[in-house]
Write a structure and sequence with these properties.
about 350 residues, TIM Barrel, alpha/beta, binds 5'-deoxyadenosine, binds iron/sulfur cluster, 8-stranded parallel β-sheet, about 45% helix
Length: about 350
């Protein structure tokens, strides 16, 4: 059963009318399968109209799993002594990035834990070496750093920055990221925007204690900050963390957040997250049909990849190029050849 009011709200959102926080919450908290279907189909339609059938690929290189932070949810947290730690050498990182280009990936994401060994200068050197002889777009994802670092990296040629806000609930944020504040993270996101980066952010769905109200607040934050890319993934339990006994997030709830975000933000880049693929065999595929238009293949050399265990099972779901092409073409979509920068609808 689809309630009349549900139809109405989805339709007005699709037509671009502003939703109140209560409307977002209403769309989000449905328990009806059929209402969910309406939501997902509408998101798929808006995706097609606003960003088309092209799927953008971003190769991700996880170059260090050292982390100075102690997030309760994450396997890379500093108190996880069971994890084998690694740092790739500059030469290895540059090689991996250049391989991405030769595999036709227009963007490489350089991601790590918050690892102070990678100083401002070392990251500059990385960016310069990669840009020296490839035209690949570089996304950095190395956490909260100083304004001066962000500025120097932009000047060295970095194009984009990925920093998930994780949760818009300041209480939950404080509880899950000891010693850190949501306000500081939002400040970093404003700096990145100011410096001219394309900015990616995102959240986790199903964190212990997280309510639908909190998720509605995440969506409002996406709107307010006008992020170019938004990663929405389920929280996955990691046994070597303090949240070992919690429950993982649910795929459908994650897809509802994704679909509403697509309908409201129209032309953003929304990845089908790896976590969705780990949670459910069809997770990524279903995300692609509920608003997503980006996939981020892991191109970290396998010997390192298996130690980048943010949550279990992550290294196992890597889609090879063939499987990825299959999945995308079976959905009637195609892989984009460009760097996949956000093209705002109003510039089309
Ligand atoms: N489950 C899902 N996502 C997680 N991340 C960290 N730990 C987990 C987890 N247990 C995500 C965070 C972070 C990104 C690098 O990985 O959103 O920003
Ligand atoms: Fe470190 Fe990021 Fe994991 Fe937190 S989520 S422990 S900052 S890698």
């Amino acid at each position: 059963m689809v309630r009349e009011e549900y139809w109405e709200k989805v339709r007005s959102a699709k037509e671009g009318q502003k939703l109140s926080p209560e409307d977002i919450l209403f769309l989000l908290s449905t328990a009806e399968r059929e209402e969910e279907e309406v939501l997902f189909e509408t998101a798929d339609r808006v995706r097609k109209d606003c960003v088309g059938d092209e799927v953008h690929l971003r190769g991700i290189v996880e170059f260090s799993n050292f982390c100075a932070q102690n997030c309760l949810y994450c396997g890379l947290r500093r108190d996880n002594h069971a994890l084998v730690r690694y740092r790739m050498s500059l030469a290895e990182i540059v090689t991996a990035a250049k391989n991405a280009r030769s595999q036709g990936l227009g963007t490489v994401v350089l991601q790590s834990g918050e690892d102070p060994w990678f100083t401002r200068e070392r990251i500059i050197e990385l960016i310069r070496s990669i840009k020296e002889d490839t035209d690949v777009a570089i996304t950095l994802s190395v956490g909260e750093r100083s304004y001066a670092d962000y500025l120097a990296w932009k000047e060295a040629g970095a194009d984009r920055y990925l920093l998930k806000h994780e949760t818009a609930s300041s209480t939950l944020f404080r509880a899950l990221r000891p010693g850190r504040e949501l306000g500081e993270r939002l400040q970093a996101l404003r700096w990145l925007r100011e410096l001219g980066y394309e900015v990616g952010s995102g959240n986790m769905v199903g964190l212990p204690g997280q309510t639908d109200e909190d998720l509605a607040r995440d969506i409002q934050l996406f709107i307010q900050y006008e992020f170019d890319m938004i990663g929405i993934g389920p929280f996955m339990v990691h046994p070597q963390t303090p949240l070992a006994r919690a429950a993982s997030g649910q795929l459908n709830r994650t897809l509802r957040v994704l679909a509403i975000t697509r309908i409201i933000t129209r032309d953003t880049n929304l990845p089908a997250t790896t976590a969705a693929g780990v949670l459910d065999q069809n997770g990524r595929r279903r995300a692609m049909s509920a608003g997503a238009n980006v996939v981020m293949p892991d191109i970290t050399p396998p010997n390192y990849r298996r130690h980048y265990e943010i949550y279990p099972g992550k290294a196992r779901v890597t889609l090879d190029r063939h499987a990825l092409t299959e999945m995308i073409s079976s959905l009637g979509r195609r892989i984009s050849q460009g760097a996949g920068a956000r093209i705002r609808s109003r510039d089309r």
